[in-house]
Design brief:
Layout (H helix, E strand, L loop, with lengths): L1 E5 L15 H15 L3 E7 L4 E5 L2 E6 L6 H10 L4 E3 L14 E4 L11 H14 L2 E4 L2 H10 L7 E3 L21 E6 L7 H9 L9 E6 L4 H12 L7 E4 L6 H7 L2 E4 L9 H8 L3 E5 L14 E4 L3 H13 L1 H15 L4 H16 L7
Helix pairs in contact: 1-11, 5-9, 8-10
């Protein structure tokens, strides 16, 4: 069976290179899971022109209509495919194919710029038309249960995963001085401003602490804004700003004592948070979206409101209390095992079979 994944972008609009982000990493893992189950997979996405690329044996098609109209591009993708899996609920109401599955990456409309009524309508359309919606967190399920109770039964929750063999604590105990790590995309939703404001309150009190930002550089407008912002920081010399390839991320987490996940909105079950937990880091996370499904307050991390004063206070407590920090680290690794890759693959294989049937048969 040919199963077509429809998503905004797995590659850049010109098809030249991969896009780095949580949705895209989840997409590659799901492509691998579907192929292991026996499905043939191709991908349809937005493009600056019509193009075809092959990556790791997967055909990826860019639809050039997207440069003119995103909804027209979706119609083009629907027209050129038979059996579809939609990798994201679209932010505008669209016609989904019957016998399809749609993924929700969490509530995204807390962004003040979003039209909340329109986003609820987009969710209603997906839930009405698709056979099943898989959510990565329970926050989305609870919101839909409150707004559209009769449609919530179509939602299955499969939290995101972490490869606990790849991400694991260091072989030797971490040594002082402590390292505080922010491993995130440059995106307002990921709390980069919140992190910088929090660090500003601590740098003078803790001159020995290392503060590291490992960020991606995919978004050019955000890059320029951040570079200007960094130049104006009075503590710029205390902040290490790096871009780390994915294959080096396990070592970076192993070197970190504390990882900060200060999301402000639009967060599911964060891959960065799961990787930090699996690496035995003490995590400071905000109580936003699916992060509340991952952090048990004061057991495997600290969960605080998304404000710079609460984040800085949590960091200060962990820097002052090494024994408490080590206890959180131990429980972090333990809790991450519930989100292992094999469990995720089994849950997703079952979802694919429910919606599409065995890969060698036709509906």
């Amino acid at each position: 069976m040919q199963l077509s994944f429809i998503m905004p972008n797995l590659l850049t609009w010109d098809g030249d290179r991969p896009v780095v982000g949580g949705l895209e990493r989840m997409a590659w893992a799901l492509i691998d899971t579907a192929r292991r189950a026996g499905y043939a997979v191709d991908v349809h996405q937005n493009g600056s022109s019509d193009w075809v690329q092959t990556v790791d044996g997967v055909t990826i098609r860019g639809h050039g209509l997207a440069r003119l109209n995103l909804l027209a591009a979706l119609e083009s993708m629907n027209h050129e495919t038979t059996t579809c899996l939609y990798l994201s609920i679209m932010q505008e109401p669209i016609a989904y194919k019957p016998h399809s599955l749609v993924v929700s990456h969490g509530v995204w409309w807390e962004d003040p710029s979003q039209d909340v009524r329109g986003q609820f309508e987009a969710c209603r359309m997906a839930l009405n038309q698709a056979d099943e919606v898989v959510s990565v967190d329970y926050n989305f399920l609870n919101v839909i249960r409150a707004v559209y109770p009769s449609l919530s039964k179509k939602i299955t929750v499969i939290p995101n995963f972490v490869d606990t063999d790849l991400f694991k604590p260091p072989a030797m105990p971490r040594e002082d001085p402590p390292v505080v790590l922010f491993p995130r995309r440059i995106d307002p939703a990921r709390g980069i401003d919140l992190f910088l404001d929090s660090v500003a309150k601590l740098v003078d009190k803790y001159p020995e602490v290392r503060f590291i930002m490992s960020i991606d550089r995919n978004n050019q407008p955000f890059n320029a804004r951040l570079d200007t912002q960094l130049q104006r920081l009075p503590f710029r010399d205390r902040l290490e700003v790096i871009s780390t390839p994915f294959h080096q991320m396990p070592a970076l987490y192993q070197a970190a004592d504390i990882v900060v996940i200060p999301s402000t909105y639009s967060e599911g079950t964060s891959l960065s948070c799961l990787e930090a937990l699996a690496s035995g880091c003490a995590v400071v996370a905000t109580d936003v979206g699916g992060l509340t499904n991952l952090i048990l307050p004061r057991y495997n991390g600290l969960l605080v409101p998304p404000r710079s004063d609460t984040v800085s206070q949590a960091l200060e407590e962990l820097l002052e209390n090494r024994a408490f920090r080590l206890a959180l680290s131990s429980h972090a690794r333990e809790s991450s095992l519930a989100f292992g890759l094999l469990r995720w693959q089994k849950a997703w294989t079952a979802a694919l079979m429910r919606v599409y049937g065995p890969p060698m048969t036709r509906r």
